[in-house]
Write a structure and sequence with these properties.
Blueprint lengths: L1 E6 L4 H10 L5 E6 L9 H8 L4 E4 L6 H6 L1 H22 L2 E7 L22 H16 L4 E6 L2 E2 L6 H9 L5 E4 L3 E2 L2 E2 H16 L6 E4 L6 E2 H11 L7 E4 L19 H5 L8 H9 L3
Parallel strand pairs: 1-2, 1-3, 3-4, 4-5, 5-10, 6-9, 7-12
Antiparallel strand pairs: 8-11
Helix pairs in contact: 1-7, 2-4, 4-5, 6-8, 8-10
């Protein structure tokens, strides 16, 4: 029986991951929330990782704008702490799956970024996450997996889809940016994909390295908002398109966050489904 440690288990993705893992009778799952494990403490990390065959790290500093003012603190969590986890995994021979982000790319392209595209983050959050990626690939060249995701939404945390559903009951009209393109990704579907990757890794089918864990297809935040309203039986014309310069924020955002999914086929796994069909599935559970 394999033993799996999930860090960041109280977060949106962490909670969905636990709901996918725990019914498995061939696994023993340890859940570590932020309150239960400080991943910036190397000794605590070493003790937590001991005895496990796989660590899935969903813990992260996720405040993108806050990272601009506190880059050192963000990097301690998204970079240094990931190094502690990877080092502890290396010491006991455990595999590691680490969650990263599309923000490691500049986001000024017009074609989906392949897994081997050269990173060039434009904000502190992206830089901090890149430090974590490099730690995994350096310390776990044979047993480390980095899964980049983007535009994540789900039942258990603050996210764009939840915000649109809330604002639908509060405002007659909503202005949503239409000049940023990406792949809305349901956290539960990503959790299922991560477990499939772990299984493929354990059997030697999935090679270590970088994978892109986003849905297929692409849309804008405006397109996503209209789709959410449409699925809820609301008038999508209540959503009006606008531009990013109307919403000034401390951290610059990539305008093109579309990722390619070539490595899933190499691992014998299909990529995540189309963003719209995944949204329909997700909203049926909300």
């Amino acid at each position: 029986m394999s033993r799996v440690l999930v860090t960041g288990a109280g977060g949106m993705l962490g909670r969905d991951l636990l709901s996918v893992l725990r019914p498995r009778r061939d696994l023993t799952v340890t859940a570590a929330t932020r309150a239960e494990l400080d991943i910036t403490d190397p000794e605590a990390v070493r003790r937590a990782v001991a005895g496990h065959d796989l660590v899935v790290n969903t813990a992260a500093w996720t405040d993108v704008d806050g990272a601009e003012a506190e880059e050192e603190a963000a990097t301690a969590v998204n970079g240094g702490a990931v190094g502690h986890l990877a080092g502890a995994c290396a010491a006991v021979g455990a595999r590691m799956i680490h969650i990263s982000t599309d923000y490691v790319f500049r986001g000024d392209g017009a074609d989906p970024y392949p897994e081997d595209a050269v990173p060039a983050p434009v904000n502190a959050y992206g830089r901090s996450k890149l430090v974590g990626e490099l730690a995994v690939t350096r310390l776990l060249p044979d047993t480390g997996y980095v899964v980049r995701t983007a535009w994540l939404y789900g039942e258990h945390g603050r996210n764009f889809v939840a915000t649109m559903l809330r604002l639908a009951g509060e405002r007659d009209r909503l202005d949503v940016v239409d000049d940023q393109r990406g792949q809305p990704t349901w956290s539960y579907a990503l959790a299922e994909q991560l477990v499939a990757l772990a299984d493929a890794a354990r059997t030697g089918v999935a090679a270590p390295g970088i994978y892109h864990g986003t849905t297929s297809g692409e849309t804008t935040w405006y397109g996503l908002a209209r789709a959410v309203f449409d699925q809820r039986g609301l008038d999508p014309d209540r959503i009006r398109p606008t531009t990013s310069d109307r919403f000034r924020r401390p951290a610059p955002r990539p305008s093109y966050s579309v990722l390619a999914h070539g490595r899933w086929g190499e691992a014998g796994l299909p990529p995540l489904a189309d963003w719209h069909s995944t949204l329909v599935r997700a909203l049926s559970r909300y």
